[in-house]
Write a structure and sequence with these properties.
The complex is a heterodimer of chains A (317) and B (158). By secondary structure, chain A is α/β, with parallel strands linked by helices. Chain A is built from ten helices and eight strands. Chain B has helices at 45-58, 76-86, 101-113, 135-141, 145-153, and strands at residues 29-32, 37-41, 63-67, 89-96, 122-126. Classes of the chains: A alpha/beta (317), B alpha/beta (158).
Chain lengths: 317, 158
Amino acid sequence: MELSSEQQIETLRRMWLIRYFEEAAIRLYGEGRYRGSTHPYIAQEATALGVCAVLEPHDQVLATYRGHGAAIAKGANPQTMMAELLGKATGMCKGKGGSMHMSQVDLGFLGSNAIVSGHIAIAGGVALAQQMDQTGAVTVAFFGDGASCQGVFYETLNMAALWKLPLVFVVENNEYAISTHYTESISVPFISQRAQGFGLPGVTIDGRDFYAVVETAAEAVARARRGEGPTLIEAKTVRWTRHSAVAAGAPGAAADKWKETDPIPRYTTELLTRRLLTEEQVVALEQAAKAEIDAAVQYAIESPYPDVEALHADVYA
Amino acid sequence: VLFADSISLYGTKADLPDEEFLVPFGQAVVRREGGDVTVVALGAMVPQALKAADELAAQGMEAEVIDPRTLAPLDIDAIVASVEKTGRLVVAHQAHRTGGVGAEIAQQVTERAFDSLDGPVVRVGAVDVPVPASIELEKAVFPVAADIVKACLSFRRR
């Protein structure tokens, strides 16, 4: 699938938005500006961006608590996300969702979910609704290697394959379920192999290679749209940061080696090679993204907290 | 054993014996004695109830604070004995008010000591909404000492 020049350039901008958003999220947590936790998407940017690049606006995305990247990839405004992170009234969910429960229905971002793999079954339901309503839309569920060990994942794989749901499972194998390496908890070398037992295609790709993600996702989405059923994509990646701002699970000494496979410089090189951008434009684009995140942080800090009266709003129908 | 802990207590400190000690199941502890109102406080509500008892004492009401420590088995005898003395019961927990275990304690006391009660048992619990992420909204959801004080003082209006 060939993406337009504009879309490829926009992708680099969003990569930097995600990277700087997450760096700001870690910093703001350290400053005590919000509680709970936050789970950085740093170094995984190419996966969410590659998958969302082939989606239509009415397609639906569900993500994990490591879901800020998917939100930005689906077109969310970092400003309302940052305000949400700090629990402000101007936030994406008016401050009620926080880092782990961001959602924006009109964007087709049905949200991140704090329950490991809990959203996979929800994604199955969303895909079933799309099939029954014959909308032609598809659903994507992002989740991690740890989530792929939960029973609900297999239940959803089974029903999605049986009913040929328009669903794309994207397991982002960042190697560690908090501190457990996947080779210590998964019985096969590739998570994608698990698809075989349920009769759907499974494929493993380098999740840090934007164009590889686009190509694979395009095929899976097209298959889903044709009514041929789900696909399981395993996007291999790494996590440089700790599991979250609170929990341990640092990847340790290997992190430096992993940084050599940073998806952003890799993608930047691609754009330069394709002559879509000059060196100067690349620098300007990164600086503009950084400035946008800085402004988002300022906006979030200056925004008011919700009124206590808002407690009951949007809760009961 | 199903163990429910409160994250809000993670940062707190307390004196512990040097040697191993075990919390017996089904044995409540009276954290503070008082004759005017019984406050059954669960988990993170115990320190809040003790704070409330100080405030109530300043207003001339002596609260007896009971910490059941375990809910199953529940030391209902200790609670009933206290209610028979005070005639008033407030149950405080961080769980939602609707469907919270406070309702069960209230019901058991009603079955066992209805004649001792001067009025309905008062429940203090979280507001019946999903807990919001926003710090300011979260503060409005979970009860604190002031809510327990208010609940205890409501008996005066009867």
